[in-house]
Amino acid sequence: MTVFIRVLDASVDEKADAIRTALTAPHVSVAFEQAPEKFTAIPGSPFAYWAPSSCLQIFTTSEPFNRTPRLVVSTNPLNADFRFARVWWEPKASTLGGAWRPWAKGGAYSPHYYDVNTVIAWSDDRQSYTGFLGTENRPLERPASVQHFFRPGMTWPRRTQGGLGIRAMPAGCIFADKGPAAFVEGDGAEDLLALLAVTTSTPFRYLVALQMAFGSYEVGVLQRTPVPNLDKTDVSTLAVLSRRAWSLKRWLDTHNETSHAFVLPMGLNEKVSGRERSVVEREIGALVLQVDDAMFVLYGINADDRTAIESSVKRAPLNEGEQEAESDDESDDASEDDTLASADSFSSWLVGVAFGRFDPRLATGERAVPPEPEPFDPLPSRSPGMYPEGEEPAERPDILVDDEGHADDLAARAISIAERVKVDAPENFRAWLAKEFFPLHIKMYSKSRRKAPIYWQLATPSASYSVWLYIHAFSKDTLFRVQNDYVTPRLAHEERRVESLASELRDGATAAQRKQLAAQEGLVEELRAFLDEVKRVAPLWKPNLDDGVVINFAPLWRLVPQNKSWQKELKSTWDALGEGKYDWAHLALHLWPERVVPKCAKDRSLAIAHGLEDVFWVEGTDGKWTARKTPTKSVDELVKERTSPAVKSALKSLLEAPVASGKSTGRNGGGRRKAAAATEGGDA
Question: For 484, phi and psi rounded to 5 degrees?
């Protein structure tokens, strides 16, 4: 036997005293007697001298995780998330589950349950990510482990601060390199749930940790971790506990409007469900303890060893996944915070209802909350809180405005919805919409390093006037309607007010009256500049949601001067588009066909993206693709078909236009002050 001394937790100044104490009193808690040859029982023979002997023995008496009927697998890294991945609310709902499949790519720590919030472009015909290239410009026709895609199973992020967080993975998902997967033979829900209980238990997590030198939960580590033998009674008992824990964790997500589980915002959600968050969290904690009790017995770990294990395995709090922030690239949801103030959560929901996205009948009782799905059911294309397919409002607006008295005034519509559900609208709601909502909305709708707001605020520099667009209702004609039906009439109205004020104040105007006139003139100046920018971009704007929110929004970067950080991001994306960095995008082909089409003849991936593969490429009898010596249609002909003189003229005007420098008047008609200049423009 060898005595080992462990003083990792002692400070630098205390280590020497701790070692001396251990040498004179070898039975203190930092001293461990262990036979080194026992370390060979653990895969990789780590120097785990602190591990109880009973745990070392488990590696020889229990079968490893990756043994029939269980399987642990991963797949190849994508390395092109911006191109091929989206958050699930970006594409059209009709394409979810088809061209866009749920993609379990890791994320934050969250055992039992975690919403799969990303989707990936997928081709059933190719059995591959649409247009994805492997090495040497060769499309990867069959990703690694593709035969296990879409099976119900379990997944986890390879690296998180909270620890190993294995959770249910619904059927229909593609898993990722950063989000490996585990399955059971036959895909039985009860067997999966029982295994979920095993893998989220303290003893299993401890056995995993014994094998790790660093905090990365690689496939190999999980494959080698022992799993106890379970009889039918064990499976049934553990499955019930696991199913309940999943259900409660999912309920905690039903107030999060970006989740597939969303029902209603905080406050309304608790009222309708009759549940309290604190009560639910306590029940989850009790279930975790019940599972641990069963697992320590099944692993054959005695009470003393259990105490040692529990003291070394710290379980992260339930909301750890919402708060963690890591610098490692393995963490896909760094700094995500889905927990909003109750008032903000409610206000955001009101906006969603005003645009016809969320269903207020759930709050009034006119529609029952849909039944909870099973843990491994395929993800829906819309959350329970949205209108069911076919029940959407007859007129779902694509445009609402900040224009008091207008029939399409967003604030007025939202306040009327608050009255309908019998909840007071927040104070200063109109000012909140103008100044605070859009930055909050961008934060709420940012996941997996993607920023994807679905309600777009186009505004004057002072946000004294705003137009709001909803991406799932707008079309290529929406900006023309903004121009003709909203901004032009409002500008004409404000110009008449200037004339009226000027006429009234011609003789003997007071300082206050002159200030009022100056503010009105400033508002008119801002509206004229805003209208000019809309007129420039409307002829060339052709949204395609498959490109993603940021690329669709990029041409409108001049129209968000009220939010400098977002304007900077859009301008950067717009510049990258102009430089040819995103030539896979539909927008790039629409604006620069003379540049994109010739590239398709040299880059098969781009040809696939733009539906030109068969024009420029041919598959040989050996299954390899080569460029055609003579395309089925000439490059010049293809470019001509895709070139619009009106679009080219509008693009030239947009690129050459100076950046507007409207005057900021403030929302209450304060004195004139120069608006902060927008980001410098120029050729992209």
Answer: -85, -35
Quote the pLDDT of residue 504. 81
SS3 state of residue 507: coil
Considering Cα of 168, then 169, then 175, then 176, what sign does the dihedral take? negative
Please give the helix or strand (H or E) that residue 181 lies within, else none. strand 181-184
Q: What is d(CA 328, CA 165) in angstroms, rounded to the nearest whole number?
A: 17
Q: How far, in Å, are 25, 38, 210, 227, 305 from residue 7 at the CA level?
A: 14, 22, 17, 31, 19
Q: Find the radius of gyration of the CA atoms of the chain.
A: 30
**Cα(571)–Cα(559) distance, integer angstroms:** 11
- Return the SS3 of 464: coil
Place of tokens 């940790």: 209
Q: What are the structure tokens assigned to 530, written together?
A: 């805003």
> Which segments of 377-471 are extended strands (E)?
399-402, 446-447, 450-451, 455-459, 466-470
CB contact at 8 A, 159 and 328:
yes
For 480-628, strand residue ranges (E) read 617-619, 625-627
Q: What is the DSSP code string of 51-83?
A: S-HHHHHHHHHSEESSSTTEEEE-------HHH
Half-sphere exposure of 449 (CA within 13 A, CB side): 16
Place of tokens 């003139």: 521
Exposed e or buried b for every residue in 274-287, given b needs 16+ CB within 10 A? ebeeeebbeebeeb
Single-letter residue type at 105: K
Counted residue by residue, the chain has a size of 684
Q: 97 with 260: CB under 8 angstroms?
A: no
How far apart CA 56 and CA 34 sit, in angstroms, is: 11
Which of helix, strand or coil describes residue 501? helix
Determine the distance from the C-alpha atom of residue 433 to the mean position of all C-alpha atoms in its chain, rounded to a whole number.
23
- The helix (H) or strand (E) run that includes residue 243 is helix 232-251
Q: Which residue has the tokens 């989220």?
A: 200
Which among 329, 331, 576, 565 is positioned nearest to 453, based on CA atoms? 565
Q: What is the pLDDT of residue 328?
A: 38
DSSP β-ladder status, 174-175 and 100-104? parallel
Structure token digits, residue 398: 């694509």
Nearest CA among 615, 614, 556, 611 for reference residue 589:
611
Structural element, H or E, at residue 432: helix 429-432
Residues of the chain with pLDDT under 70: 1-10, 22-51, 131-141, 213-214, 314-340, 507, 660-684
Mean residue pLDDT of the chain comes to 87
Q: Which residues pair with 663 in a beta bridge?
A: 674
**Side-chain-facing half-sphere of 476: CA atoms under 13 Å:** 9
Q: Which two tokens stand for residue 665?
A: 């008047």
pLDDT digits (tens, 9 = 90+) for 383-424: 999 999 999 888 889 999 999 999 999 999 999 999 999 999
Q: What is the DSSP letter of 215?
A: S
Max intra-chain CA distance, the chain? 104
pTM over 0.85: yes
Residue type, 288: V
- In the block, which residue shows the tokens 């990756």? 66
Between CA 683 and CA 481 the distance in angstroms is 27
Three-class secondary structure of residue 578 per DSSP: helix
CA dist., res. 637 & res. 631, Å (int): 11
